[in-house]
Design goal:
The protein has 17 helices and no strands. It has about 450 residues and is mostly helical. α3 runs antiparallel to α4, α7 runs antiparallel to α8 and α14 runs parallel beside α17.
């Protein structure tokens, strides 16, 4: 019998060249995130063809949708972390508990948002505007996406289960199916093609929900057929307090960061509505277009975090610093490309959303001013994820809250007192510069305390 002790195979995150490793992990995630951004943009392009008020209705509904996505993604992050850790420990009972309790939590969340859709949709719009057409279209849209929010919650969770076992390609496939369904159904249901009734904004909401439901179906299939590490069983299920606590211990900071974004979006909408509803439509267009740049950077983040975390545990300083440098280089390149697009072709981008003369007059300077944030955002986004990867998520939360609630909203309100809507847009680069300074300070402290001492 051979008694020679064999070494376990080495993990590629500790051995593979950083650039190749980072790109091989990041590209599927970046494509997946870009698909997500694409169908939000296409959705708004079709809605804008109905009219400016229709685009405003969808824009004003976005903070609620953003909270739903944030709650789903944050809970999914917690499920992902606990499930991956349990798999590593080969504790398959805890793996099943993490998955089943995760589904329990997201379905409870979906039930709460269904009640919000039924009872609060109209009131939510009436406290923001007195334009009756926006209120009626908005409440129909919000009612559908909230009442059937179980689709988006389930879709996000199924994709996280795939990601937790390294199957990011299948998570991308699930998202792609949902996006394609939505893009195909949008014009059919909004404008009443092929014998369907013309449903307008309501049709956009229905198309979104059907797309999410299709993605859920694919997600269930791929988890059942391809995700052999997870055996989901609800037999004898009881909510487990320890599991729920650990899911939210990891996911809460992500949920709170997303919630601050929704509060910011709502507050900016109110400031812009004090000038004109067109300014709100412009903000909605900018937010959707910039997501097409931010989403691939977030995908890069998702690949970067486990590489840094692994090598931090392995005490490999050079691999950590090289990963950070390369990530910032790629993120900066993506953002510089976006900055040039927004500076050179703002009118072309606005034309995608059927912009009239008034919207162009407001939108062109708005796009050029707000896109200044791209010069700093790549560094900040990567920095926030470095904190999370090294167990310092509090710094990420502090920077996010300072940027969006402590700096951006007060600056926007103060600048609005000048009586010029163009002044309000400057609050975005101001807040981004403050975030950059905070990020540099915290990263320097992190390097001195945690990275520099490594062998």
């Amino acid at each position: 019998m051979n008694t020679e002790k064999t070494e376990p195979p080495q993990n590629i995150m500790g051995t593979q060249p950083i650039n190749r490793l980072l790109l091989s992990m990041a590209i599927p995630m970046m494509l997946s995130m870009m698909v997500q951004a694409l169908y939000n943009i296409v959705d708004s392009i079709f809605v804008a063809k109905i009219g400016e008020n229709a685009l405003n209705a969808v824009t004003l509904a976005f903070p609620v949708q953003n909270i739903m996505i944030g709650l789903g993604v944050g809970t999914g992050v917690g499920i992902n972390a606990l499930l991956s850790k349990s798999l590593g420990e080969r504790n398959f009972e805890r793996v099943n508990k993490a998955a089943t309790n995760g589904f329990f939590l997201i379905w409870i969340s979906a039930g709460i948002f269904a009640l919000v859709g039924i009872f609060l949709s109209e009131g939510y719009f009436r406290i923001q505007t007195d334009i009756e057409e926006i209120i009626q279209m908005g409440k129909e849209y919000l009612f559908v996406v909230c009442v059937f929010s179980v689709s988006i919650f389930t879709q996000v969770t199924l994709e996280r289960l795939l990601a937790s076992t390294g199957k990011t390609f299948y998570a991308m496939v699930s998202q792609l199916v949902g996006a394609v369904i939505n893009i195909i159904l949008d014009p059919i249901m909004i404008f009443g093609l092929f014998g369907f009734p013309e449903l307008g904004v309501l049709g956009a909401a229905i198309a979104t929900v059907i797309g999410q439901t299709g993605a859920c179906g694919v997600g269930f299939y791929l988890n059942h057929r391809r995700n052999k590490e997870i055996h989901l069983s609800f037999k004898g299920f009881k909510p487990d307090g320890w599991t729920i606590k650990n899911i939210y211990a990891v996911g809460l900071s992500s949920i709170l960061m997303q919630a601050t974004g929704s509060i910011m979006f709502y507050g900016i909408n109110q400031i812009l509505l004090s000038f004109t509803a067109t300014a709100t439509a412009v903000f909605g267009v900018f937010f959707r277009l910039q997501s097409f740049l931010f989403m691939p950077v977030f995908g890069l983040n998702n690949a970067m975090v486990p590489i840094i975390a692994f090598n931090y545990g392995a005490r490999r300083r050079s691999r950590i610093t090289k990963t950070i440098r390369l990530s910032m280089l790629y993120a900066g390149g993506i953002m510089l490309f976006g900055f040039l697009l927004f500076q050179l072709f703002p009118d072309k981008m606005l034309f995608l959303f059927s912009a009239g003369e008034n919207m162009l007059a407001l939108g062109i300077p708005a796009m050029r001013i707000t896109s200044l944030i791209f010069l700093f955002a790549g560094f900040c986004i990567i920095g926030l994820s470095v904190f999370q990867a090294m167990g310092s998520g509090t710094e990420s939360l502090i920077i996010a809250i300072c940027r969006q609630l402590v700096i951006l909203l007060p600056a926007a309100w103060l600048l609005s007192l000048l009586g010029d809507v163009n002044a309000v847009w400057w609050s975005f680069p101001i807040a981004e510069v403050v975030s950059l300074m905070l990020c540099v300070i915290f990263l320097r402290r992190l390097y001195v305390r945690k990275i520099k001492p490594l062998a």
